[in-house]
Amino acid sequence: ANGLALPVGNLAGFSSVQTSMPATKTVYTLWASNSANGLAQLGAPVTVISAASSTGDSIPKAVYGAGSVLLDASTAFAGQVLVVGGFSDVAPYVAGALPAGTALRSAYIYNSSTSTLTLLNATLLTTARVFPRIALLASGKVLVAGGNMTGASSLFELIDTTSVSPTASAIGGDTTSRCLAPLVGPMSNNRYLLTGGTDCSNDTALDTWKTINPLSGAPTVTTGGTGFAGTHALGLARSWHTATKLTGDVVVLAGGRDALVATNTMELVTYDPATQANTTFTIISPSLQTGLSVPRFDHTATRYPAGCNTNCKVLFAGGNSASADIYTEPTGGATAGTISAASSMSAPRRGHGAVLLNPTGVAPVASGLILVVGGFDGANTLATTEFFDPGTSTFVPGPTLTMKRHQASVVTSNTAPVSRALVVGGTAATSGGVANANFLTLLEQVSVTP
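Request: output the structure for the sequence above.
Response:
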């Protein structure tokens, strides 16, 4: 098909590279015919993606576990990426313990068009943070949550990015430490939800949660779970899990672990804006075949398609496995969604990154593709990337990074006409632990062109 010359005889094991496919077409169906004019399709449709990885600027301090977010026109840095926190060095890794070392208060701005990084302030954050969870608010400010490993430091803070000289301030009055707890929102009353995680002193997971409305005049934190009267605990203590907002005020929690034991359970958290508390916690039992297909922790959860209002899906990928699951949210009053298997990735991954490329849907080639980057396969840190194609529920190879990366920060850095993802720092260590000498300073971008 498309001018591809076919060999004589049996086509088993035949492969070829076609270099003259029309530029306007991205999915191809290949056919073969024989001397008797028989016609047959050669396997499944083939997705062709034009992508490349390129290096950009370097961050002055090698960083591991930073947070990043793409800023919009409500800020003074429209279309640029804010990078905050992370480790610049750590103590030797101890199995079952959290990393311990020098955390950062720094903030940088990355311009994907010029591939340049600018230091905003080396001490912008009110407290040093590792694996901080961050979200851009409608006000042009950025909410930063968790990763505050030191005592008497603020759990939440706001960065005002409406000025070219950003400032940060602690909010909420909560000074408890919490690490590895995903942040999700906004809910219908502008509250954000922080679930599970640890107290940053060890790997024991929590079944408590926090909510805050960062847009209120005097933000306050609501805490619930075990030990807090009149509230509901999470169905399972979790850290290294994912939390994904579905339609309305429903959040799906998936996987994670408590101490060193991973889980394949999921639960729906229904947030009640009237009482500013979580009132429904439903464990989706694996025995009903609605849990994850395998236990997962340090995996990724990516909601798609962009802008969906109903029938949204979530791709759960990796977490000590090459497998992936697709979760479809509940519809028609159902209390649980459905899980189906996607194809497997090329290798097991955890500590990888995943982003939905071109969420604005302007570039037809990149629209809806999910990029998976790097990670650790159980023996080695990876430099490979791959794309998940929602149209076929399959993964296809992406460009190879210039270096291996584990626990890098990965974020969409441009939406149109070229879709880009920025990859910041991480470690190139070839074991499950981290090593200062393997911390990375070089930034790079993965670009997909229409």
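The two ends are 22 Å apart (CA to CA).
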